[in-house]
Amino acid sequence: MGGQTYWVNAKKSGLYTPMLNSIVGQFEAMLSHHSKVHILRFDLHQNIYTDDNKRLTIFNRRLFKWLKRKYDLERVGFAWVREHEQAQQQHYHYALMLNGHKVNSPVYVQEKAVQVWADMSGHLFWPEYPFYNVQRGEHEQIQEVIYRLSYLAKTRSKPKTLAPAGLRNVKCHPHFGCK
Q: Are strands 131-135 and 91-99 parallel, antiparallel or unpaired?
């Protein structure tokens, strides 16, 4: 990124490079638009297995509409990956990327994300230290975020869901750096 080399979290299972490139590309694109980016990391669990990712499309549409209205945002960056390990239903690891000059606290965004997903009969999990405020050019902050987000590209727990009938396992905003 920007001629820099970063550490990634490839422990135990390795990483899918195309997924990692898409996720990092989304982060790079947001930093190119905003000198400060607010990032939230969470997991979306659902009660039933689905053959598609339509629930994520609905979640994004509802959450993004609220975010744009509440914070007057021009763009919302995101990346998610679908995983299916031991439980019957899949779950998603999600990263939300926002203009850090307009959003610098996660509280209201967290509440709304939980509400939107609960309204869709899902459970949203917040990991420890779920958010970052990153300044463009701050190598240590950027390194920390890339290491954290690289976990989304791990190979473990994805083989069952990789490309059945063209099903997408990673998605980010196509206009803002998704490769």
A: unpaired
* DSSP labels, 136-169: TT-HHHHHHHHHHHHGGGBSTT-GGGSSGGG--S
Beta bridge partners of 125: 43
Residue partners of 41: CB distance under 8 A and separation at least 6 = 93, 94, 95, 96, 127, 130, 131, 148, 149
Tell me the mean pLDDT in the region 15-25: 89
Q: What contacts 177, CB < 8 A, 6 or more positions away?
A: 25, 26, 27, 28, 29, 30, 32, 77
Reported as a single tens digit per residue, the pLDDT across 120-162 is: 999 999 999 999 999 999 999 999 999 999 988 888 655 444 4
CATH number assigned to the domain with residue range 17-172, chosen from the 4 options 1.10.150, 3.40.1000, 3.40.50, 3.30.70: 3.30.70
CB of 145 closer than 8 Å to CB of 132: yes
pLDDT one-digit tens code per residue, 72-119: 999 999 999 988 766 678 889 999 999 999 999 999 999 999 999 999
How do the domains of the chain map onto residue ranges? 17-172
